[in-house]
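Whether sequence alone determines local backbone shape is best considered at the level of individual chains. When preparing material for the folding task, we compiled for one chain both its residues and its backbone structure tokens. The sequence in question and its structure tokens are set out directly beneath this paragraph.
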Amino acid sequence: MGIEFKRNVRVEYSPVKNKELVEKQTGLKICNNKAKLFKDVLQKQKLIACYPLFDSPQIDYNGNLLGCCKIYKGNLGTNVFKQGFLNALNSANVIHVKKVLTDLSVVPNLNIPCTGCSRYRMLKKENIPLVI
């Protein structure tokens, strides 16, 4: 079985106590600067909830396309049971969300749940679009 180590983006939650040991055991470079760490993690490890929309979209029990694991109070306005999987993935709302995440100059419409998401706000604040 393979194992993959990922950095904790919330350094205040579980700070590394022995930087040298962790770096030696995992091969990861440890950084306590939250903004730099977040940017590095985004660019190198794709450790963000938005990526599943592109390669493994989340579907709710009732068929609503959620897109990612952070959407639990809404959905992307399409249902895979009613529209079919490919039609749902190619709906106008889903295409719009993908554009919003990969091109931060695109203004999100207020119907998408991403506008209230902390991860999306971090992407905007750090000016880091998703790279697919």
Observations:
- Strands lie at 58-59, 65-67.
- The two ends are 27 Å apart (CA to CA).
